[in-house]
Amino acid sequence: MNKIAIIGAGAVGATIAYATMIRGVAKQLALYDINRAKVDAEVLDLNHGLQFVPMATLVGSDDIGVCAGANVVVITAGAKQKQGQTRMELAGANVEMCRTLVPQLLKVAPDALLLVVTNPVDVLTYVVQKLSGLPARRVFGSGTVLDSSRFRFLIARHLNVAVQNVHALIAGEHGDSEIPLWSSATVGTVPLMKWSAPGHSPLTDDDRTRIFDNVRNAAYQIIRGKGATNYAIGLATAQILEAVLYDENRVLPVSSRLDGYQGIGDVCMSVPSIVNRAGVETVLDVPLDDTEREGLRRSADTIRQAIRTLGF
Fold first, then answer.
1. Where are the beta strands (DSSP E) in the chain?
2. Among residues 48, 167, 174, 200, which one is catalytic?
3. What digits encode the pLDDT tens for the residues 213-228?
4. What are the sequence ranges of the domains in the chain?
5. Angstrom distances, CA of residue 17 to CA of 8, 27, 235
6. Which CATH number applies to 145-309?
7. How far apart are the first and last CA of the chain?
8. Which of 16, 58, 70, 281 is the most buried (most CB within 10 A)?
9. Which stretches of the chain score pLDDT less than 50?
10. CATH class for domain 3-141?
């Protein structure tokens, strides 16, 4: 029976639990948080909605043992991003949390995949993989799955087409150095850069600049307005969990350790990857133009520098 454990019952962790419950991703959900009153309240509230969703068992505790036997552990705990703060500025405090947390998780859920959502997600994915000693495929981050969803939404809105028909990815860091992969983007089967349809405006250079700026700054905008992002990352994480637990072989831009990818190595960041029950089965060697390739390498350098600053 599939079991998901979620570390952290804050806005993101609770929303992942909610999205996962609604979609019926797993039959067992466990929430862990050091704040017992908070985790008890979130679990009680979720359990009160069980009548309306696929049947599942939800439990919560401030004892890490609640995660025992999990197939996937989702790490959301840590300091949250404040207004005006970059994801990279969160790194120090959240790395120290991982030093304590990861050994505890390995004791109670030694066979679990570890899915990192806490920011800066690329740095922390690398740190968790190092601390755990697990194979790289078993430790991965939510990466730019959310960024890519923002990207597709904005393209679809401009072109006046369904977002489900837009296939476009953000790669690299989940953060300020991320890269839009314009050259491989399509709408249906039509290359985005050749898009032309009556009543459905093409993208100009200015449009592309505006769209990407909005993607890159989306979190800052949301944090200014309500203090945290939670709904879209909850849904994005639920989709990643489905890909794993249903063994879907779904292509997703998750963050995982790269070694020898397009000349990039010893870093975790997002590129299109096949995700299934084993975790990240393989990363895909997608076509890149020269600008994208150089941007991806710069993004890797940014993440690697942060990793080295933290002593890893």
1. 3-7, 28-32, 57-61, 72-75, 113-116, 139-141, 166-167, 170-171, 179-180, 186-187, 190-191, 250-252, 255-261, 264-270, 273-276, 279-283
2. 174
3. 999 999 889 999 998 8
4. 3-141, 145-309
5. 10, 12, 10
6. 3.90.110.10
7. 36
8. 16
9. none
10. alpha beta
